[in-house]
Amino acid sequence: xxxxxxxxxxxxxxxxxxxxxxxxxxxxxxxxxxxxxxxxxxxxxxxxxxxxxxxxxxxxxxxxxxxxxxxxxxxxxxxxxxxxxxxxxxxxxxxxxxxxxxxxxxxxxxxxxxxxxxxxxxxxxxxxxxxxxxxxxxxxxxxxxxxxxxxxxxxxxxxxxxxxxxxxxxxxxxxxxxxxxxxxxxxxxxxxxxxxxxxxxxxxxxxxxxxxxxxxxxxxxxxxxxxxxxxxxxxxxxxxxxxxxxxxxxxxxxxxxxxxxxxxxxxxxxxxxxxxxxxxxxxxxxxxxxxxxxxxxxxxxxxxxxxxxxxxxxxxxxxxxxxxxxxxxxxxxxxxxxxxxxxxxxxxxxxxxxxxxxxxxxxxxxxxxxxxxxxxxxxxxxxxxxxxxxxxxxxxxxxxxxxxxxxxxxxxxxxxxxxxx
Length: 421
Description:
Elements lengths: L35 H13 L4 E5 L12 E6 L8 H4 L13 E7 L6 H17 L7 E7 L5 H6 L2 E3 L6 E4 L7 E5 L10 H4 L5 H12 L8 H16 L10 H18 L2 H5 L4 H5 L4 H5 L4 H5 L4 H5 L4 H5 L4 H5 L4 H5 L4 H32 L15 H13 L3 H13 L6
């Protein structure tokens, strides 16, 4: 953080202004440094944007310069409190604030001093004044990677909030609006893990990354997982001495490399573990989804109409026996589209059977009238005779003079000819 009060440009009219004197040659090149707040800002952007919290990095505190290394988390103005989903990713101190505008200054490589506390308190005033906000609408924080000296905290009236390790608030009006979060001291809770990735102690960083990476792909988005993997590698794998300058894009590229290496070393089962069915099949063409499945496996779970969808009529009927093709159809549906001769050929056996039944009834009735016989007199001797035989016997029943004459003719037709069906 290189900005100071003589560069803020916010005091337009003043009678006397004493400024410290700096012996800095403007021609001397300034050292290039890693903007750690940009890395934290990118991480919070990936985590919080989808939850309705806007994240701004290097936010202009006023309508004109200066620009400070400030993160701004802004809640929807119509949303009165943090949602359950948002609270899952906000650290102690911030999650306990009801303000809708959160200013946060990250101190990663330098300690928190009195100058820093006073400067950040000024940011709070400038931001509220410029944007015409109430005090209750803005809360300001310093995120300290290193543990601040106890004497500095005591000098400015800071005390740890009871029940919230690592959260310090001051009782002195000058800096009372600036809450200090000691990242090394925050509780090992999941909602603190994203902030604790920037703690100075390697053990705290490792615990935080272990908790976050353990969530896996089912919870973390692909881009968030890659960024966390790259950030972990950059902050723990190589050492700060090799990290002279690193940007959010560098971290994302490093995470992508690690993801590719990890995927190459994993088996197919390991890659797919934990994914829902639709996630496993996403991006595959229909023929790729079905490749290697037996026919019955492809059709399992489909309704009959889904199985037949897209098939031509002849494909739907292929392999079915005639009676299976006609099963369930109404008579008029069975005959639809057939030529007259096809209809006759299809129903000829049924028609002949009906004609035989009619001829048998006529013969039985004639015999009862002519010879005063009971319906059961001939038993089943007349059943099963062909239509031609029944018609011939009906003529005999009319012309025969006696029952004996009819019975003789019946015997001849059923024993000496092949007219029985």
